[in-house]
Amino acid sequence: MLTFALPTGRSVYDCIELLDQAGLPVEKLKKPGRNLVIEEGNFRYLLAKPMDVPAMVHYGAADLALAGSDVIEESGVALAELLDTQRGKCTMAIAGPPEAALKFNGHISRLMGLRVATKYVNVAAKTFASWGVQIKILKLNGSVELAPALKLCDCIFDIVQTGNTLRANGLSVIKETAPVSLRLVAGVGAVQTRWNAMFGVVEAIGGCAVRGAGN
Amino acid sequence: MNTIPKGCSNIGGRAAARLEYCRNRTLELFAQYGYRPFSPAELQLIEDVWNKLSPSRARRLITVTSPFGEPCVLRGDLTLSAVAYLDSHYNQDERPLRLCYADRVFSSPQPPRTNLEENQVGVELLGWEGEGAEAEVVTLLFRTLDSLSIEDSFVVLGDTSVMAQIFAGFPEHVVAQLTEALQKYSYTTYHQVLSTLEMDEDRRKLLKALPTLKGDTSVLTEFMRLTGDQELVMPLKRLCDTLIKLGFEDRLRVDFGFIRDLGYYTGPVFNAYAAVSGTLLGGGGRYDGLLSKIGVEGQAAGFALNLKELADHSPDRFPSPVLMLWCGGGDASDALRYADGLAKKKISFELSWQKEKEESMRIARLRGYRWWVDYFGKKAYLLNGGKEEGIALKKFESEALSC
Prior knowledge:
The complex is a heterodimer. Chain A is an alpha/beta fold. Chain A is built from nine helices and eleven strands. Chain A has helices at about 10-20, 25-30, 55-60, 70-75, 100-105, 120-130, 165-170, 190-195, 195-215, and strands spanning about 1-5, 35-40, 45-50, 65-70, 80-85, 90-95, 115-120, 135-140, 155-160, 170-180, 180-185. Chain A has a six-stranded mixed beta sheet with strand order 2-3-1-4-11-5. A five-stranded mixed beta sheet of chain A has the order 8-7-9-6-10. Chain A is elongated. The two termini of chain A are about 30 Å apart. The relative contact order of chain A is 0.20. By secondary structure, chain B is α+β, with helices and mostly antiparallel strands. Chain B has helices at about 15-30, 45-50, 55-60, 80-90, 135-145, 160-165, 170-185, 185-195, 200-210, 220-225, 235-245, 290-295, 305-315, 330-345, 355-365, 395-400; strands at about 35, 45, 65, 70-75, 95-105, 115-130, 155-160, 215, 250-255, 270-275, 280-285, 300-305, 325, 350, 370-375, 380, 390. In chain B, strand 3 (about 65) and strand 4 (about 70-75) form a beta hairpin. In chain B, helix 1 (about 15-30) crosses helix 13. The interface of A and B includes residues 80, 189, 190 and 199 of A.
Protein backbone atom coordinates (compact mmCIF):
# COMPACT_ATOMS: atom_id res chain seq x y z
CA MET A 1 0.00 0.00 0.00
CA LEU A 2 1.27 3.47 -0.89
CA THR A 3 0.58 6.40 1.41
CA PHE A 4 -0.11 9.71 -0.26
CA ALA A 5 -0.14 13.03 1.64
CA LEU A 6 -2.36 15.73 0.17
CA PRO A 7 -2.71 19.37 1.19
CA THR A 8 -6.05 20.53 2.49
CA GLY A 9 -7.45 23.85 1.31
CA ARG A 10 -8.24 24.95 -2.19
CA SER A 11 -5.50 22.93 -3.89
CA VAL A 12 -7.02 19.66 -2.71
CA TYR A 13 -9.51 19.85 -5.60
CA ASP A 14 -6.66 20.10 -8.13
CA CYS A 15 -5.01 17.13 -6.41
CA ILE A 16 -8.13 14.96 -6.53
CA GLU A 17 -8.76 15.81 -10.16
CA LEU A 18 -5.18 14.91 -11.05
CA LEU A 19 -5.22 11.63 -9.13
CA ASP A 20 -8.58 10.77 -10.70
CA GLN A 21 -7.20 11.37 -14.19
CA ALA A 22 -4.17 9.26 -13.33
CA GLY A 23 -6.51 6.39 -12.54
CA LEU A 24 -6.07 6.35 -8.76
CA PRO A 25 -9.15 5.53 -6.65
CA VAL A 26 -10.54 8.82 -5.30
CA GLU A 27 -14.28 8.25 -4.67
CA LYS A 28 -13.96 8.39 -0.88
CA LEU A 29 -11.46 11.20 -1.18
CA LYS A 30 -14.05 13.34 -2.94
CA LYS A 31 -16.22 13.20 0.17
CA PRO A 32 -13.80 12.88 3.07
CA GLY A 33 -16.12 14.39 5.71
CA ARG A 34 -14.00 14.93 8.80
CA ASN A 35 -11.70 12.01 8.03
CA LEU A 36 -8.03 12.88 7.71
CA VAL A 37 -6.96 9.36 6.77
CA ILE A 38 -8.78 7.72 3.89
CA GLU A 39 -8.05 4.26 2.55
CA GLU A 40 -9.10 3.41 -0.96
CA GLY A 41 -7.88 0.44 -2.95
CA ASN A 42 -4.13 0.15 -2.51
CA PHE A 43 -3.78 3.73 -1.35
CA ARG A 44 -3.92 5.52 1.95
CA TYR A 45 -4.47 9.28 1.68
CA LEU A 46 -3.43 11.63 4.47
CA LEU A 47 -5.03 15.06 4.46
CA ALA A 48 -2.72 17.59 6.08
CA LYS A 49 -2.14 21.33 6.34
CA PRO A 50 -0.11 22.34 3.27
CA MET A 51 2.88 23.43 5.38
CA ASP A 52 2.98 20.04 7.13
CA VAL A 53 3.07 17.94 3.96
CA PRO A 54 6.86 18.17 3.34
CA ALA A 55 7.72 17.06 6.88
CA MET A 56 5.27 14.13 6.61
CA VAL A 57 7.07 12.89 3.54
CA HIS A 58 10.52 13.58 4.96
CA TYR A 59 9.83 11.53 8.09
CA GLY A 60 8.37 8.66 6.07
CA ALA A 61 4.75 9.02 7.22
CA ALA A 62 3.86 9.27 3.52
CA ASP A 63 5.58 7.72 0.50
CA LEU A 64 4.39 10.35 -1.95
CA ALA A 65 2.72 13.75 -1.72
CA LEU A 66 1.45 16.64 -3.75
CA ALA A 67 2.72 19.95 -2.45
CA GLY A 68 2.96 23.48 -3.79
CA SER A 69 6.44 24.56 -4.86
CA ASP A 70 5.94 27.60 -2.59
CA VAL A 71 5.48 25.34 0.43
CA ILE A 72 8.39 23.08 -0.51
CA GLU A 73 10.69 26.07 -0.88
CA GLU A 74 9.51 27.66 2.35
CA SER A 75 9.88 24.47 4.37
CA GLY A 76 13.45 23.91 3.20
CA VAL A 77 12.88 20.20 3.78
CA ALA A 78 15.03 17.86 1.68
CA LEU A 79 12.64 15.96 -0.59
CA ALA A 80 12.75 14.25 -3.94
CA GLU A 81 10.83 16.48 -6.34
CA LEU A 82 9.68 13.97 -8.92
CA LEU A 83 7.63 16.10 -11.29
CA ASP A 84 5.86 19.35 -11.92
CA THR A 85 2.17 18.49 -12.28
CA GLN A 86 1.40 21.80 -14.04
CA ARG A 87 -1.65 22.07 -11.74
CA GLY A 88 -2.50 24.62 -9.10
CA LYS A 89 -0.56 27.23 -10.99
CA CYS A 90 -0.08 30.66 -9.44
CA THR A 91 2.75 33.11 -8.91
CA MET A 92 4.90 34.15 -6.00
CA ALA A 93 4.88 37.94 -6.09
CA ILE A 94 5.52 41.18 -4.28
CA ALA A 95 2.36 43.27 -4.09
CA GLY A 96 1.51 46.54 -2.50
CA PRO A 97 -0.15 49.95 -2.77
CA PRO A 98 0.94 52.41 -5.48
CA GLU A 99 3.47 54.16 -3.21
CA ALA A 100 5.29 50.85 -2.68
CA ALA A 101 5.34 50.28 -6.44
CA LEU A 102 7.16 53.60 -6.83
CA LYS A 103 9.99 52.36 -4.59
CA PHE A 104 10.50 49.34 -6.84
CA ASN A 105 10.76 51.58 -9.90
CA GLY A 106 13.70 53.48 -8.43
CA HIS A 107 17.23 52.45 -7.44
CA ILE A 108 17.53 49.27 -5.43
CA SER A 109 18.85 51.21 -2.43
CA ARG A 110 15.30 52.58 -1.96
CA LEU A 111 14.22 49.09 -0.99
CA MET A 112 16.60 48.87 1.97
CA GLY A 113 14.73 48.38 5.22
CA LEU A 114 11.46 47.70 3.39
CA ARG A 115 8.81 46.24 5.70
CA VAL A 116 7.41 43.11 4.09
CA ALA A 117 4.48 41.12 5.46
CA THR A 118 4.37 37.48 4.48
CA LYS A 119 3.79 33.94 5.61
CA TYR A 120 6.73 32.87 3.45
CA VAL A 121 9.47 34.33 5.63
CA ASN A 122 12.26 32.07 4.36
CA VAL A 123 11.50 32.54 0.66
CA ALA A 124 11.03 36.30 1.14
CA ALA A 125 14.34 36.67 2.96
CA LYS A 126 16.12 34.59 0.31
CA THR A 127 14.52 36.48 -2.60
CA PHE A 128 15.37 39.96 -1.33
CA ALA A 129 18.82 38.83 -0.17
CA SER A 130 19.54 37.60 -3.71
CA TRP A 131 19.07 41.22 -4.83
CA GLY A 132 21.34 42.47 -2.04
CA VAL A 133 18.43 44.01 -0.18
CA GLN A 134 17.92 43.76 3.56
CA ILE A 135 14.30 43.90 4.62
CA LYS A 136 12.24 43.76 7.79
CA ILE A 137 9.92 40.79 7.69
CA LEU A 138 6.58 40.66 9.46
CA LYS A 139 5.40 37.08 9.76
CA LEU A 140 1.62 36.75 9.32
CA ASN A 141 -0.30 33.51 9.09
CA GLY A 142 -3.16 34.73 6.91
CA SER A 143 -5.01 37.76 5.51
CA VAL A 144 -1.66 39.20 4.54
CA GLU A 145 -3.41 41.65 2.19
CA LEU A 146 -4.70 43.55 5.23
CA ALA A 147 -1.25 44.50 6.47
CA PRO A 148 -0.45 47.48 4.16
CA ALA A 149 -3.79 49.18 4.90
CA LEU A 150 -3.06 48.81 8.62
CA LYS A 151 0.38 50.38 8.03
CA LEU A 152 2.03 47.24 9.37
CA CYS A 153 4.17 46.97 6.26
CA ASP A 154 5.11 48.63 2.97
CA CYS A 155 4.31 45.63 0.80
CA ILE A 156 3.45 41.96 0.95
CA PHE A 157 5.11 38.83 -0.40
CA ASP A 158 2.55 36.17 -1.23
CA ILE A 159 1.17 33.86 -3.87
CA VAL A 160 -1.21 35.42 -6.38
CA GLN A 161 -3.70 33.44 -8.42
CA THR A 162 -6.34 35.75 -9.89
CA GLY A 163 -5.36 38.99 -8.14
CA ASN A 164 -8.96 39.59 -7.01
CA THR A 165 -8.11 39.70 -3.28
CA LEU A 166 -5.28 42.13 -3.99
CA ARG A 167 -7.54 44.45 -5.98
CA ALA A 168 -10.25 44.29 -3.32
CA ASN A 169 -7.69 45.57 -0.82
CA GLY A 170 -6.24 48.32 -3.02
CA LEU A 171 -3.08 46.40 -3.88
CA SER A 172 -1.51 45.32 -7.13
CA VAL A 173 1.33 43.04 -8.20
CA ILE A 174 4.61 44.93 -8.21
CA LYS A 175 7.00 42.15 -9.13
CA GLU A 176 6.51 38.48 -9.88
CA THR A 177 9.34 36.44 -8.39
CA ALA A 178 8.63 32.76 -9.15
CA PRO A 179 6.01 30.54 -10.75
CA VAL A 180 4.26 28.16 -8.36
CA SER A 181 2.63 24.82 -9.12
CA LEU A 182 1.83 21.52 -7.47
CA ARG A 183 4.78 19.14 -7.41
CA LEU A 184 4.80 15.40 -6.89
CA VAL A 185 7.29 14.74 -4.12
CA ALA A 186 8.60 11.76 -2.19
CA GLY A 187 11.01 11.07 0.61
CA VAL A 188 14.56 10.53 -0.59
CA GLY A 189 14.70 7.19 1.22
CA ALA A 190 11.40 6.06 -0.27
CA VAL A 191 12.59 6.94 -3.77
CA GLN A 192 15.70 4.83 -3.31
CA THR A 193 14.13 1.85 -1.60
CA ARG A 194 10.51 1.75 -2.84
CA TRP A 195 10.86 3.01 -6.39
CA ASN A 196 9.46 -0.17 -7.91
CA ALA A 197 6.28 0.28 -5.88
CA MET A 198 5.82 3.96 -6.71
CA PHE A 199 7.10 4.08 -10.28
CA GLY A 200 3.75 3.22 -11.89
CA VAL A 201 1.97 5.98 -9.97
CA VAL A 202 4.66 8.50 -10.84
CA GLU A 203 4.39 7.56 -14.52
CA ALA A 204 0.60 7.83 -14.49
CA ILE A 205 0.63 11.25 -12.83
CA GLY A 206 3.45 12.35 -15.10
CA GLY A 207 1.35 11.41 -18.14
CA CYS A 208 -1.52 13.56 -16.87
CA ALA A 209 0.87 16.42 -16.14
CA VAL A 210 2.16 16.37 -19.72
CA ARG A 211 -1.41 16.32 -21.09
CA GLY A 212 -2.32 19.15 -18.68
CA ALA A 213 0.62 21.24 -19.89
CA GLY A 214 -0.43 20.65 -23.47
CA ASN A 215 -3.96 21.94 -22.87
CA MET B 1 18.63 23.80 35.99
CA ASN B 2 21.31 23.47 33.33
CA THR B 3 20.15 23.86 29.77
CA ILE B 4 22.03 22.74 26.70
CA PRO B 5 22.37 24.56 23.38
CA LYS B 6 19.61 24.08 20.85
CA GLY B 7 20.48 21.26 18.48
CA CYS B 8 22.61 19.39 21.04
CA SER B 9 21.62 16.54 23.30
CA ASN B 10 22.94 14.69 26.31
CA ILE B 11 22.44 10.98 25.85
CA GLY B 12 22.21 8.82 28.92
CA GLY B 13 20.39 5.83 30.34
CA ARG B 14 19.34 3.00 28.03
CA ALA B 15 19.89 5.11 24.90
CA ALA B 16 23.54 5.65 25.85
CA ALA B 17 23.93 1.96 26.67
CA ARG B 18 22.53 0.99 23.26
CA LEU B 19 24.78 3.52 21.56
CA GLU B 20 27.80 2.17 23.39
CA TYR B 21 26.87 -1.39 22.56
CA CYS B 22 26.67 -0.56 18.84
CA ARG B 23 29.89 1.43 18.97
CA ASN B 24 31.81 -1.42 20.63
CA ARG B 25 30.31 -4.07 18.40
CA THR B 26 31.13 -2.21 15.19
CA LEU B 27 34.66 -1.24 16.25
CA GLU B 28 35.31 -4.84 17.24
CA LEU B 29 34.18 -5.99 13.80
CA PHE B 30 36.26 -3.34 12.03
CA ALA B 31 39.30 -4.44 14.03
CA GLN B 32 38.73 -8.05 12.92
CA TYR B 33 38.91 -6.85 9.32
CA GLY B 34 42.19 -5.06 10.02
CA TYR B 35 40.92 -1.50 10.42
CA ARG B 36 42.85 0.49 12.98
CA PRO B 37 41.20 3.07 15.22
CA PHE B 38 41.64 6.70 14.32
CA SER B 39 40.70 9.65 16.52
CA PRO B 40 40.76 12.91 14.55
CA ALA B 41 40.83 16.46 15.88
CA GLU B 42 37.51 18.13 16.68
CA LEU B 43 38.49 21.27 14.79
CA GLN B 44 39.49 21.45 11.14
CA LEU B 45 41.04 24.46 9.42
CA ILE B 46 38.55 26.06 7.04
CA GLU B 47 41.19 26.26 4.30
CA ASP B 48 41.69 22.49 4.48
CA VAL B 49 38.07 21.47 4.05
CA TRP B 50 36.21 24.22 2.23
CA ASN B 51 37.08 23.39 -1.38
CA LYS B 52 36.94 19.65 -0.83
CA LEU B 53 33.23 19.53 -0.10
CA SER B 54 30.27 20.39 -2.33
CA PRO B 55 29.08 24.02 -1.88
CA SER B 56 25.83 22.88 -0.27
CA ARG B 57 27.72 20.75 2.23
CA ALA B 58 30.40 23.36 2.90
CA ARG B 59 27.72 25.96 3.69
CA ARG B 60 26.48 23.71 6.49
CA LEU B 61 29.83 23.62 8.29
CA ILE B 62 29.89 25.32 11.68
CA THR B 63 32.67 27.86 11.80
CA VAL B 64 34.59 28.81 14.92
CA THR B 65 37.79 30.67 15.66
CA SER B 66 40.27 28.71 17.72
CA PRO B 67 41.80 30.40 20.81
CA PHE B 68 44.94 30.76 18.66
CA GLY B 69 43.02 32.87 16.17
CA GLU B 70 42.82 30.27 13.41
CA PRO B 71 39.61 30.14 11.36
CA CYS B 72 38.24 26.64 11.83
CA VAL B 73 35.13 24.51 11.52
CA LEU B 74 33.82 21.98 13.97
CA ARG B 75 34.71 18.67 12.32
CA GLY B 76 32.02 18.21 9.70
CA ASP B 77 33.47 15.19 7.96
CA LEU B 78 35.70 12.39 9.20
CA THR B 79 36.88 11.23 5.78
CA LEU B 80 38.76 14.48 5.16
CA SER B 81 40.63 14.00 8.44
CA ALA B 82 41.46 10.40 7.53
CA VAL B 83 42.84 11.44 4.14
CA ALA B 84 44.95 14.21 5.72
CA TYR B 85 46.27 11.67 8.25
CA LEU B 86 47.24 9.26 5.47
CA ASP B 87 49.07 12.02 3.66
CA SER B 88 51.04 13.21 6.64
CA HIS B 89 51.81 9.90 8.39
CA TYR B 90 52.35 7.21 5.74
CA ASN B 91 54.73 6.66 2.87
CA GLN B 92 53.57 5.30 -0.45
CA ASP B 93 55.01 1.85 0.33
CA GLU B 94 53.06 1.61 3.60
CA ARG B 95 49.68 1.80 1.89
CA PRO B 96 46.88 0.84 1.82
CA LEU B 97 45.82 2.18 5.16
CA ARG B 98 42.69 0.88 6.89
CA LEU B 99 41.20 3.22 9.46
CA CYS B 100 38.05 3.08 11.54
CA TYR B 101 36.47 5.58 13.89
CA ALA B 102 33.57 6.25 16.18
CA ASP B 103 33.23 9.96 16.69
CA ARG B 104 30.99 13.00 16.34
CA VAL B 105 30.53 15.25 13.34
CA PHE B 106 28.90 18.65 13.38
CA SER B 107 26.89 20.57 10.80
CA SER B 108 23.98 22.97 10.54
CA PRO B 109 20.83 20.87 10.35
CA GLN B 110 18.60 20.73 7.32
CA PRO B 111 14.92 21.31 8.15
CA PRO B 112 12.92 19.79 9.70
CA ARG B 113 15.82 18.33 11.68
CA THR B 114 17.45 20.40 14.39
CA ASN B 115 20.42 18.34 15.56
CA LEU B 116 23.86 19.93 15.20
CA GLU B 117 25.80 16.79 15.99
CA GLU B 118 25.77 13.20 14.85
CA ASN B 119 27.59 10.18 16.23
CA GLN B 120 29.18 8.22 13.42
CA VAL B 121 31.04 4.95 13.07
CA GLY B 122 32.86 4.20 9.88
CA VAL B 123 35.83 2.91 7.98
CA GLU B 124 38.17 4.28 5.36
CA LEU B 125 40.33 2.15 3.07
CA LEU B 126 42.92 4.49 1.64
CA GLY B 127 45.57 4.29 -1.02
CA TRP B 128 44.88 0.93 -2.64
CA GLU B 129 46.02 0.62 -6.26
CA GLY B 130 44.20 -2.48 -7.46
CA GLU B 131 40.66 -3.85 -7.49
CA GLY B 132 38.57 -4.93 -4.54
CA ALA B 133 38.48 -1.82 -2.36
CA GLU B 134 34.82 -0.98 -2.78
CA ALA B 135 33.73 -4.64 -2.68
CA GLU B 136 35.54 -4.97 0.65
CA VAL B 137 33.97 -1.80 2.02
CA VAL B 138 30.40 -2.60 0.91
CA THR B 139 30.73 -6.15 2.24
CA LEU B 140 31.94 -4.76 5.53
CA LEU B 141 28.94 -2.44 5.54
CA PHE B 142 26.61 -5.43 5.18
CA ARG B 143 28.56 -7.33 7.84
CA THR B 144 28.28 -4.34 10.18
CA LEU B 145 24.51 -4.22 9.79
CA ASP B 146 24.33 -7.98 10.26
CA SER B 147 26.47 -7.86 13.38
CA LEU B 148 23.87 -5.54 14.90
CA SER B 149 21.06 -7.83 13.70
CA ILE B 150 19.82 -5.22 11.22
CA GLU B 151 19.58 -7.84 8.48
CA ASP B 152 16.34 -6.25 7.35
CA SER B 153 18.20 -3.49 5.52
CA PHE B 154 19.05 -2.37 1.98
CA VAL B 155 22.12 -0.98 0.37
CA VAL B 156 21.49 1.29 -2.63
CA LEU B 157 24.34 1.55 -5.13
CA GLY B 158 25.03 4.24 -7.68
CA ASP B 159 28.07 5.27 -9.67
CA THR B 160 29.25 8.85 -9.93
CA SER B 161 31.69 8.00 -12.72
CA VAL B 162 28.87 6.66 -14.93
CA MET B 163 27.07 9.95 -14.61
CA ALA B 164 30.23 11.91 -15.37
CA GLN B 165 30.62 9.97 -18.63
CA ILE B 166 26.99 10.39 -19.61
CA PHE B 167 27.22 14.15 -19.08
CA ALA B 168 30.51 14.39 -20.97
CA GLY B 169 30.47 16.96 -23.76
CA PHE B 170 28.06 19.37 -22.08
CA PRO B 171 29.43 22.74 -20.95
CA GLU B 172 30.84 22.69 -17.42
CA HIS B 173 28.08 24.86 -15.96
CA VAL B 174 25.42 22.57 -17.45
CA VAL B 175 27.10 19.50 -15.95
CA ALA B 176 27.14 21.35 -12.61
CA GLN B 177 23.42 22.17 -12.93
CA LEU B 178 22.46 18.60 -13.85
CA THR B 179 24.64 17.16 -11.09
CA GLU B 180 23.25 19.54 -8.46
CA ALA B 181 19.67 18.78 -9.55
CA LEU B 182 20.22 15.04 -9.14
CA GLN B 183 22.09 15.53 -5.89
CA LYS B 184 19.09 17.43 -4.52
CA TYR B 185 16.66 14.90 -6.04
CA SER B 186 15.06 17.81 -7.88
CA TYR B 187 14.00 15.92 -10.98
CA THR B 188 11.86 18.87 -12.14
CA THR B 189 14.97 21.06 -12.28
CA TYR B 190 16.90 18.25 -13.96
CA HIS B 191 14.28 17.95 -16.70
CA GLN B 192 14.10 21.74 -17.07
CA VAL B 193 17.85 21.89 -17.65
CA LEU B 194 17.65 18.98 -20.11
CA SER B 195 14.91 20.73 -22.08
CA THR B 196 17.27 23.63 -22.79
CA LEU B 197 19.96 21.37 -24.30
CA GLU B 198 20.36 20.20 -27.86
CA MET B 199 21.22 16.53 -28.37
CA ASP B 200 20.21 13.54 -30.43
CA GLU B 201 17.08 11.62 -29.52
CA ASP B 202 18.86 8.52 -28.18
CA ARG B 203 20.90 10.59 -25.78
CA ARG B 204 17.85 12.57 -24.68
CA LYS B 205 15.98 9.34 -24.06
CA LEU B 206 18.80 8.03 -21.89
CA LEU B 207 19.18 11.28 -19.96
CA LYS B 208 15.43 11.54 -19.37
CA ALA B 209 15.33 7.97 -18.12
CA LEU B 210 18.39 8.32 -15.87
CA PRO B 211 16.59 9.38 -12.64
CA THR B 212 14.03 6.60 -13.09
CA LEU B 213 16.61 3.84 -13.49
CA LYS B 214 16.29 2.55 -9.96
CA GLY B 215 15.33 -0.72 -8.41
CA ASP B 216 16.78 -4.19 -8.11
CA THR B 217 19.90 -5.26 -9.98
CA SER B 218 17.94 -5.88 -13.20
CA VAL B 219 18.23 -2.10 -13.70
CA LEU B 220 21.83 -2.71 -14.78
CA THR B 221 20.57 -4.64 -17.81
CA GLU B 222 18.04 -1.90 -18.58
CA PHE B 223 20.82 0.69 -18.42
CA MET B 224 23.04 -1.35 -20.79
CA ARG B 225 20.10 -1.70 -23.19
CA LEU B 226 19.55 2.06 -23.22
CA THR B 227 23.20 2.98 -23.64
CA GLY B 228 24.24 0.05 -25.82
CA ASP B 229 27.50 0.26 -23.87
CA GLN B 230 28.46 -2.53 -21.50
CA GLU B 231 31.83 -1.08 -20.51
CA LEU B 232 30.35 2.08 -19.00
CA VAL B 233 28.59 0.21 -16.27
CA MET B 234 31.08 -2.62 -15.83
CA PRO B 235 32.70 -1.46 -12.52
CA LEU B 236 29.27 -1.18 -10.92
CA LYS B 237 28.19 -4.50 -12.40
CA ARG B 238 31.32 -6.24 -11.11
CA LEU B 239 30.65 -4.84 -7.66
CA CYS B 240 27.04 -6.06 -7.80
CA ASP B 241 28.13 -9.49 -9.04
CA THR B 242 30.55 -9.85 -6.12
CA LEU B 243 27.86 -8.85 -3.62
CA ILE B 244 25.33 -11.20 -5.25
CA LYS B 245 27.82 -14.08 -4.95
CA LEU B 246 28.07 -13.27 -1.26
CA GLY B 247 24.30 -13.66 -0.93
CA PHE B 248 23.26 -10.00 -0.71
CA GLU B 249 21.10 -9.84 -3.86
CA ASP B 250 17.80 -9.36 -2.03
CA ARG B 251 19.27 -6.47 -0.09
CA LEU B 252 20.79 -4.68 -3.08
CA ARG B 253 19.24 -1.80 -4.99
CA VAL B 254 20.70 0.20 -7.86
CA ASP B 255 20.00 3.88 -8.52
CA PHE B 256 21.54 5.52 -11.60
CA GLY B 257 20.38 8.97 -10.51
CA PHE B 258 22.18 8.76 -7.18
CA ILE B 259 24.82 11.34 -6.25
CA ARG B 260 25.91 11.77 -2.64
CA ASP B 261 25.96 15.38 -1.49
CA LEU B 262 29.47 15.47 -0.01
CA GLY B 263 30.89 16.31 -3.41
CA TYR B 264 34.11 14.27 -3.33
CA TYR B 265 32.91 10.91 -4.63
CA THR B 266 34.29 9.75 -7.95
CA GLY B 267 33.08 6.15 -8.34
CA PRO B 268 30.53 3.82 -6.82
CA VAL B 269 28.47 5.38 -4.02
CA PHE B 270 26.06 3.75 -1.64
CA ASN B 271 23.45 4.41 1.02
CA ALA B 272 22.23 1.97 3.65
CA TYR B 273 18.58 1.99 4.74
CA ALA B 274 16.60 0.18 7.39
CA ALA B 275 13.98 -1.69 5.38
CA VAL B 276 11.04 -1.36 7.77
CA SER B 277 11.23 2.37 8.49
CA GLY B 278 13.07 3.43 5.34
CA THR B 279 15.44 5.38 7.58
CA LEU B 280 18.83 6.29 6.17
CA LEU B 281 21.46 4.58 8.31
CA GLY B 282 24.47 6.02 6.50
CA GLY B 283 26.46 5.62 3.36
CA GLY B 284 29.73 6.04 1.59
CA GLY B 285 31.55 5.46 -1.64
CA ARG B 286 34.76 5.72 -3.55
CA TYR B 287 36.62 9.00 -3.51
CA ASP B 288 39.91 8.68 -5.40
CA GLY B 289 39.53 12.35 -6.42
CA LEU B 290 39.89 13.49 -2.84
CA LEU B 291 43.22 11.69 -2.61
CA SER B 292 44.44 13.18 -5.87
CA LYS B 293 43.54 16.67 -4.56
CA ILE B 294 46.24 16.27 -1.93
CA GLY B 295 48.65 14.64 -4.37
CA VAL B 296 48.12 11.02 -3.32
CA GLU B 297 47.58 8.40 -5.98
CA GLY B 298 45.37 5.36 -5.60
CA GLN B 299 41.88 4.41 -4.64
CA ALA B 300 39.97 5.24 -1.52
CA ALA B 301 36.63 4.04 -0.28
CA GLY B 302 34.76 4.21 2.98
CA PHE B 303 31.46 4.53 4.75
CA ALA B 304 30.01 6.18 7.81
CA LEU B 305 26.92 5.06 9.69
CA ASN B 306 24.78 7.09 12.04
CA LEU B 307 25.34 5.44 15.39
CA LYS B 308 22.08 6.68 16.87
CA GLU B 309 20.08 5.22 13.99
CA LEU B 310 21.96 1.94 14.34
CA ALA B 311 21.13 1.88 18.04
CA ASP B 312 17.46 2.65 17.30
CA HIS B 313 17.19 -0.08 14.68
CA SER B 314 19.27 -2.81 16.27
CA PRO B 315 17.09 -5.28 18.13
CA ASP B 316 20.16 -6.27 20.16
CA ARG B 317 20.42 -4.57 23.49
CA PHE B 318 23.35 -3.66 25.66
CA PRO B 319 23.50 -6.50 28.19
CA SER B 320 22.47 -5.00 31.52
CA PRO B 321 24.28 -6.06 34.67
CA VAL B 322 22.79 -9.28 35.99
CA LEU B 323 22.87 -8.61 39.66
CA MET B 324 23.21 -6.03 42.40
CA LEU B 325 25.73 -6.98 45.03
CA TRP B 326 24.88 -5.54 48.43
CA CYS B 327 28.02 -4.93 50.44
CA GLY B 328 26.52 -2.94 53.31
CA GLY B 329 27.60 -3.56 56.84
CA GLY B 330 30.81 -5.49 56.30
CA ASP B 331 34.44 -5.21 55.29
CA ALA B 332 34.61 -3.46 51.93
CA SER B 333 37.76 -5.34 50.89
CA ASP B 334 35.99 -8.69 51.32
CA ALA B 335 33.11 -7.56 49.14
CA LEU B 336 35.41 -6.08 46.52
CA ARG B 337 37.39 -9.31 46.34
CA TYR B 338 34.15 -11.20 45.68
CA ALA B 339 33.26 -8.60 43.02
CA ASP B 340 36.64 -9.18 41.33
CA GLY B 341 35.77 -12.86 41.17
CA LEU B 342 32.47 -12.09 39.44
CA ALA B 343 34.23 -9.82 36.96
CA LYS B 344 36.73 -12.58 36.14
CA LYS B 345 33.81 -14.90 35.39
CA LYS B 346 32.43 -12.15 33.04
CA ILE B 347 29.38 -11.66 35.22
CA SER B 348 28.22 -8.06 35.18
CA PHE B 349 27.07 -6.52 38.45
CA GLU B 350 26.57 -3.27 40.31
CA LEU B 351 27.85 -2.73 43.83
CA SER B 352 25.48 -1.35 46.43
CA TRP B 353 26.89 0.33 49.54
CA GLN B 354 23.49 1.22 51.04
CA LYS B 355 23.30 0.74 54.78
CA GLU B 356 19.73 -0.50 54.69
CA LYS B 357 19.00 -3.81 53.02
CA GLU B 358 15.49 -2.75 51.97
CA GLU B 359 16.76 0.45 50.33
CA SER B 360 19.36 -1.52 48.37
CA MET B 361 16.69 -4.01 47.21
CA ARG B 362 14.38 -1.16 46.22
CA ILE B 363 17.04 0.34 43.97
CA ALA B 364 17.82 -3.08 42.50
CA ARG B 365 14.13 -3.55 41.61
CA LEU B 366 13.96 0.01 40.22
CA ARG B 367 16.89 -0.72 37.90
CA GLY B 368 15.42 -3.99 36.77
CA TYR B 369 18.09 -6.35 38.15
CA ARG B 370 17.25 -10.00 38.05
CA TRP B 371 19.19 -10.88 41.18
CA TRP B 372 19.99 -9.10 44.43
CA VAL B 373 22.84 -10.62 46.42
CA ASP B 374 23.45 -10.07 50.11
CA TYR B 375 27.15 -10.84 50.21
CA PHE B 376 27.64 -10.78 53.97
CA GLY B 377 24.34 -12.59 54.62
CA LYS B 378 25.47 -15.17 51.97
CA LYS B 379 22.08 -15.17 50.28
CA ALA B 380 20.81 -14.35 46.78
CA TYR B 381 17.27 -13.23 45.90
CA LEU B 382 15.54 -13.55 42.55
CA LEU B 383 13.73 -10.25 41.96
CA ASN B 384 10.78 -11.49 39.97
CA GLY B 385 8.11 -9.28 41.48
CA GLY B 386 6.58 -12.20 43.36
CA LYS B 387 7.58 -13.80 46.62
CA GLU B 388 11.31 -13.14 46.90
CA GLU B 389 12.82 -15.92 48.91
CA GLY B 390 16.57 -16.08 49.27
CA ILE B 391 18.73 -19.01 48.34
CA ALA B 392 22.16 -19.78 49.68
CA LEU B 393 24.94 -17.93 47.91
CA LYS B 394 26.77 -21.18 47.15
CA LYS B 395 23.65 -22.62 45.52
CA PHE B 396 23.17 -19.38 43.56
CA GLU B 397 26.75 -19.56 42.30
CA SER B 398 26.53 -23.18 41.26
CA GLU B 399 23.05 -23.02 39.72
CA ALA B 400 22.12 -19.50 38.58
CA LEU B 401 25.53 -18.14 37.66
CA SER B 402 26.64 -21.26 35.87
CA CYS B 403 23.78 -20.73 33.38
